[in-house]
Amino acid sequence: MAPRAHIAVYKALYKGFGGFAADVVAAIDQAAEDNVDIISLSITPNRRPPGLATFFNPIDMALMSAVKDGIFVVQAAGNTGPSPKSMSSYSPWIFTVGASAHDREYNNYVVLGNNLTISGVGLAPGTDGDSMYNLIAAPHALQNYTTTPIEMSLGECQDPSHLDKDLIRGKILVCSYSIRFVLGLSSVKQALDTAKNVSAAGIIFYLDPFVLGFQLNPTPMDIPGLIIPSSDDSKIFLSYYNDSLVRDGTSDKVVNFGAVAKILGGLKPNYGSSAPKVMFYSARGPDPEDNTLANADILKPNVVAPGSSIWGAWSSRGLDSAEFTGESFAMLSGTSMAAPHIAGLAALIKQKFPSFSPAAIGSALSTTTTLSDKQGNPIMSQRTYSNPDSTQTPATPFDMGSGFANATAALDPGLIFDCSYDDYLSFLCGINGSAPVVANYTGNSCGASTMTGADLNLPSITIAVLNQSRTVTRTVTNVASDENYTVSCNAPYGVAASATPAQFFIPSGQKQLVTFVVNATMTNSSVSFGDVEFYGDKGHRVVIPFTVMSKAV
After folding, report:
1. Angle at the Cα of 384 (from 379 to 385), degrees rounded to 5?
2. Sign of dihedral through CA atoms 378, 384, 390, 391?
3. pTM: predicted TM-score of the whole model, two decimal places
4. Residue 86 and residue 399: Cα distance in Å, rounded?
5. For the segment 12-61, what is each residue's pLDDT rounded down to a tens digit?
6. 3: Cβ contacts below 8 Å, ≥ 6 apart
7. Cβ neighbours for 93, distance < 8 A, ≥ 6 positions apart
8. Cβ-count burial 450-479 (b if 16+ within 10 Å, e if not)
């Protein structure tokens, strides 16, 4: 995103253990002391913070101190989607990023003897030409005619010593991909070594039905191979394999492996048209305010960015993932991959607008997003772990925040919504009973404050509970040349809204206060979405999401 940016890395977490919040806070404080411009956190807490509010946790409060020092803070939303309120990044001073797909895919395919084609993942070559190869599952290839594997790792092809090499030679070895791979107890690398040790022509992993909710990354394979990432496709594959077995009528021993297949290589990318789309694992809003699961008047995530199958540099000595041992690059997925994209774009904005506050940078990114995919259709959001593409529906602000980040547009936002440390402090002080906690974390005393999240000058309007009527204000600052703007309110269903002024002229560098009066027109607890659009006569179009949850007339 910003190839000439300098990067500082602070070690605070460890493989298999994670770490303590105190170590992360120390790293944040050290980064601030080192005068970084942007902090990118591809980490989230492993549980919702207890206490008065989710915002009052050591990491978020340390990040608020960083924001006070002018540092833009980016955090991954978390990989706990697609259920509502699964968000793991809470505070309004943090720019929270969800994960979307891009249009580059590395798919390979297995073509079965019954002419079915099943898609898989794996950075692997294909089998030779159009030749079809017999399939043999590891449990059917044990030495001494053993009919069942004596331990799970044999079905996962982790140990070649129990396999009949002569029986497997020249066939495609079929292995189970279980939760043990996710936990690091089994590895694709070890299965590949097994396949090569027994002279298999290739390897196919079918997905254990218990492996749900994990994004399988295209794994480097030095022989023809793939992982079938869908449990439904895995059932189809296994059904064909089992139906093609010929068994001895007396012993039930397999006497003929009738299933055949060929593997089409996946080393070259394919380019699809249904991008971007919000990935199933990307954490969703609404933003939980506390452990009672009350909703905050704050929109999360802020935006989405590419997070699926992202290439990145990798230490060949790294042991974090056995699949990539010895590799110089790896392809990973998750909101942890999405957040650094935004950190890089923030560096470009900071370069063009050195005086921008963290909130101004976030505003530029939020109000200039893309809301359509490559085909001009609404961005879609995956809704389930299994077969996620079959359950897509149009994304809402709780899925994608303001939308998909648009790097070019963010460098010319027109208007920005600014917010200061003192504003965030007033927001925290507005939480009932928060004064001692605020004093403990910040050293500041709370005066009288009734500010809520909806009152913060954010590039969104979010109202968790609308009792009859509510007035909120937003102040915009013109960071372009003099321009005339028209304000258009597309109110959420069940709500009437007006903006004053509906039109205004704003000179370069000046501010304009806009007042929104929001009235409930019905009583219900269904979330509804709209937006507010600022149309400039010099081409700027500034859009902020408008969300109302519970309404009562």
Report:
1. 120
2. negative
3. 0.91
4. 10
5. 998 778 889 999 999 999 999 999 999 999 999 888 888 888 999 999 99
6. none
7. 60, 63, 64, 67, 73, 358, 359, 419, 421, 424
8. ebbbbbbbbbbbbbbbbeeebebebebbbb
